[in-house]
Design brief:
The structure is a single chain. The protein is an all-alpha fold and 138 residues long. The chain contains four helices and no strands. Helix 1 crosses helix 2 and helix 2 crosses helix 4. The longest helix has 32 residues. The chain starts with 7 loop residues before the first helix and ends with a helix.
Length: 138
């Protein structure tokens, strides 16, 4: 992360923006999710945030090496869009596969729909945050 956003202030803004987007998404989906998750709001929020963190972690592990290879070494201005779409498609494939596995285990609706959804949204929020930071700090 230090190679992508070298200044501490940039990283702080990135992490705060990422946190706010995740919390906003959790609150936005809370009404629908609570219908299928009877264990309380705080447990739902915790599970959703952890799922998003997992998606963001996997996406970041794919994004940083490709960013180093194409932007830092080759001197291009930004990440090629095709790689962003490919990485998001891979994360979506993992989410669909995970949802199908959970569905075959006869889990409840929250488990096989919302957990993969939040996993993918974590990766998407990370991508939105990093692309906004590049626009903001140019």
């Amino acid at each position: 992360m230090e190679r992508i956003l070298p200044k501490k202030q940039e990283r702080l803004v990135f992490y705060m923006y990422n946190f706010v987007l995740r919390i906003f998404l959790i609150l936005l989906a809370a009404k629908l999710s609570q219908k299928y998750f009877p264990h309380g709001f705080w447990l739902y929020a915790f599970i959703a945030y952890l799922s998003m963190t997992g998606g963001a972690f996997i996406y970041r592990r794919m994004y940083v090496p490709i960013y180093k290879m194409f932007v830092i070494q080759d001197g291009k201005e930004q990440m090629p869009a095709i790689f962003v779409y490919c990485m998001l498609t891979l994360v979506m494939a993992v989410c669909v596969l995970g949802g199908l596995i959970l569905f075959s285990q006869h889990k409840d609706v929250f488990t096989f729909i919302f957990v993969p959804f939040f996993f993918f949204m974590g990766a998407l929020v990370w991508e939105i945050s990093i692309s906004r930071m590049f626009i903001l700090f140019e």
